[in-house]
Design brief:
Elements: E1 2-4, H1 11-27, E2 32-33, H2 46-49, H3 56-66, E3 70-73, H4 79-88, E4 92-96, H5 103-107, H6 110-116, H7 124-130, E5 138-144, H8 161-175, E6 179-185, H9 192-199, E7 202-205, H10 209-217, E8 221-225, H11 228-237, E9 240-244, E10 257-258
Parallel strand pairs: 1-2, 1-4, 3-4, 5-6, 5-8, 6-7, 8-9
Antiparallel strand pairs: 9-10
Length: 264
């Protein structure tokens, strides 16, 4: 049995960490427990049916009584060693971010993950409010990441509105079709009128993380800076995404792809 002691990072990181370990365990006939995923059972009720565990306290007690050290996925590009050790181990307790199953392994279980992460909330009001395209518009999700990105990696992926507007315009030109743009952001005072004056049909989603994940996953294209938020939406919705890495880059449709679990 493989037990994940701690989830890494925020929501999208939790999901990605989860599917990589889960897919490996499924592929190799190993039991996988992750009781901390229970905090998502209300949002995604089908997760509970997968028997990942409910009792965090019980997990801690079992770990203490086992006298086993914690196995850490703390080295990048160390997958071969991790897999060897997990297959050779017995009742291992793990934590860390750098466990990565290949896309071809995760791909086998995409239908399972789509079902496990099917929202338990009513999605129809969101669809009615944000996703209607009476004239066949292409739905473009744009993730404007501010806040923590001002400091993360020295602001490498922190872009001002003019950069996002430029990339949106490039994509619209490539598509050469009417579009509907949905903006997703952690910016509390986004200059929405600047986007509306440029593109017309632009709406701002101010919903929960789960609702925004759903909306983004239902679009035709996703664009934004490097972020697991957009990666998860692409994965669960099988929606093409592109990450902006430089403010001066030129967009092409060939850059858009569906995340199958990894992002390289």
């Amino acid at each position: 049995m493989i037990t994940l002691l701690r989830l890494y990072g925020q929501t999208s990181n939790n999901y990605i960490q989860h599917i990589h370990i889960d897919a490996f365990c499924r592929a190799n006939g190993l039991k996988y427990r992750s009781p901390r995923m229970s905090k998502y059972y209300e949002t995604y009720p089908n997760l509970q049916s997968a028997d990942y565990g409910n009792s965090i306290l019980g997990m801690k007690v079992q770990k203490a009584l086992s006298f086993k050290p914690t196995y850490r996925f703390d080295i990048e590009n160390n997958q071969e060693v991790y897999e060897r050790d997990l297959l050779a181990g017995n009742n291992m307790y793990c934590e860390g971010w750098f466990f990565r199953s290949p896309d071809e392994v995760i791909r086998r279980y995409i239908p399972i993950y789509k079902e496990l992460f099917r929202p338990g909330f009513d999605t129809r009001p969101l669809e009615d409010k944000y996703l209607q395209t009476p004239n066949g518009e292409v739905k473009i999700a744009v993730h404007i990441r501010r806040g923590d990105y001002k400091e993360w990696l020295g602001g490498k992926y922190y872009f001002e509105d003019d950069v996002y507007i430029d990339k949106i315009q490039q994509l619209i030109t490539l598509l050469n079709r009417p579009v509907k743009i949905i903006l997703f952001t952690n910016e509390s005072k986004l200059n929405l009128p600047a986007y509306q004056s440029m593109f017309g049909d632009v709406v701002l989603s101010g919903n929960s993380v789960a609702e925004d994940h759903y909306l983004m996953s239902q679009c035709d294209y996703i664009m934004g800076p490097f972020s697991t938020f957009t990666l998860w939406a692409s994965f669960i919705g099988e929606t093409k995404f592109h990450h902006i890495f430089r403010k001066d880059e030129t967009i092409s449709l060939q850059q858009f792809r569906v995340c199958r679990g990894n992002w390289w």
